[in-house]
Amino acid sequence: MDIDAWVWWLIGAVGLGIPLVLTAMPEFGMFSVGAVAGAVTAALGFGVVPQVLVFVVVSVALVAVVRPIAARHRDGRPGLATGVDALKGRQAVVLERVDGSGGRIKLAGEVWSARTLDIGQTFEPGEQVDVVDIDGATAVVM
Fold this sequence. Notes:
Helix content is 46%, strand content 24%. The longest helix has 29 residues, at 48-76. It folds into two domains: 5-76, no CATH class; 83-141, CATH 2.40.50.140. It has three helices and five strands; from the N terminus they run αααβββββ. By secondary structure, it is an alpha+beta fold. It has helices spanning 5-23, 26-43, 48-76; strands at 91-99, 102-107, 110-116, 128-135, 138-141. It has a five-stranded mixed barrel.
């Protein structure tokens, strides 16, 4: 029983796909696509040298083009702020006078302890303030 070259390329593609799933390294997927391109080349009747060249060119092209694009998307994506980090930068309303030693604000529908960033600054009830930090259970405002 003689197996055609394109079948070997497909076996190679599956073989390269297994580490992709196990290790989550996308390069294996790119090599797997290169092997499929080699299988197509073999199925079209080209010889071994063109098959290998197509495999190498497609694999290297995918690694050279897709990998930097994926890295740029991964690094450029802003992280989702949650918890107290999501409160930083929001506006709040002063409920009780806020100064360097304390006070109360309404932030995101809840009443928070607050103090000013600048010790000499004071905010009166009804004023809008910006939350610049959360220190424990106290909002630092300005």
